[in-house]
Specification:
CATH class: Alpha Beta
Strand order of the largest sheet: 1-2-4-5-6-7-8-9
InterPro entries: GH, Glyco_hydro_25, Glyco_hydro_fam25_subgr
GO molecular function, one term: lysozyme activity
Helix content: 25-40%
Radius of gyration: 21 Å
Number of helices: 9
CATH superfamily: Glycosidases
Number of strands: 9
EC number: 3.2.1.17
Family: Belongs to the glycosyl hydrolase 25 family.
Distance between the termini: 74 Å
Catalytic activity: Hydrolysis of (1->4)-beta-linkages between N-acetylmuramic acid and N-acetyl-D-glucosamine residues in a peptidoglycan and between N-acetyl-D-glucosamine residues in chitodextrins
Largest sheet: 8 strands, mixed, barrel
Number of domains: 1
Shape: globular
Length: 267
């Protein structure tokens, strides 16, 4: 009789434990205000740096855009008809978020003839650079030499959830970024495009020049020019000059013509 009772109690405990494990809260569920669906390239820029006069397009540039789940399904035929030539699409954030609109945006832009690439919104305080790079590659951040896929992009900007530099020292931030970049190169053979602002880069990396030799710069500045660039970069490859305009999402320029954009896409 006692044995039967014990067996029943053990079984009940096992069922309860299994239910608790199945219901274990995720990082998102335990983080107040966590909103990866609202984090995108530039989502923190205007609140920190403001907006100046609208940017202008030098004659040698070509227009494009960047989008995320914030835009939802995009009418890519309309975007193409308005003159867009390229698009960057958010794929992931940290190691636990995939944009629900990534496939529609990434494949849709490709299908109408845009040259497109994927980007990762970094949260350096949540996981290592290597771990976030691996997650990105596994969920849309790969690359193929098809002439229509841009280098994967690292979106590194103001922390949407707290301390501007994610609680990392400048040295630790440089190490985190380098680890991400190196792992992406190992996994894809491409040096990543780096999206940032001069102000954030200066505060959080000490205006590090360590990536300028290999990694294309995607500068964010909502003004009439791209302004002073982070150390080491003598020119910008992409410029996000406004967070609204002709296209859905953010308004971007590539620094040269379509022939050079194709060269970048083919590596």
């Amino acid at each position: 009789m006692v044995s039967a009772t014990i067996r029943a109690l053990v079984a009940a405990v096992a069922v309860t434990a299994g239910a608790l494990l199945a219901a274990a809260p995720t990082y998102a569920a335990t983080t107040p205000g966590y909103h990866p669906d609202r984090d995108f390239a530039g989502s923190t820029v205007a609140s920190h740096e403001g907006r100046g006069p609208a940017g202008f397009a030098p004659l040698t540039t070509i227009p494009g855009l960047d989008v995320s789940g914030w835009q939802g399904a995009v009418n890519w035929s309309s975007v193409k008809s308005k003159g867009a030539t390229f698009a960057y699409v958010k794929a992931t954030e940290s190691t636990d978020y995939q944009s629900p609109d990534f496939t529609q945006q990434y494949d849709g832009s490709y299908n109408v003839g845009l040259i497109r690439g994927a980007y990762h919104f970094a949260l350096p305080d949540k996981a290592s650079g290597k771990a976030q790079a691996d997650y990105f590659v596994a969920h849309g951040g790969g690359w193929s030499r098809d002439g229509k896929t841009l280098p994967p992009m690292l979106d590194i900007e103001y922390n949407p959830y707290g301390d501007t530099c994610y609680g990392l020292s400048q040295a630790s931030m440089r190490s985190w970024i380098q680890a991400f970049v190196n792992e992406m190169h190992t996994k894809t053979t491409r040096w990543v495009t780096v999206y940032t602002t001069l102000d954030w880069w200066t505060k959080c990396t000490g205006n590090w020049s360590g990536l300028a030799a290999n990694d294309p710069l995607f500068i964010a500045r909502y003004a009439s020019s791209a302004g002073t660039l982070p150390a080491g970069w003598s020119f910008w490859t992409f410029w996000q000059y406004a967070d609204s305009g002709t296209f859905p999402g953010d308004q971007d320029l590539f620094s040269a013509g379509l022939d050079r954009l194709k060269v970048l896409a083919t590596g």
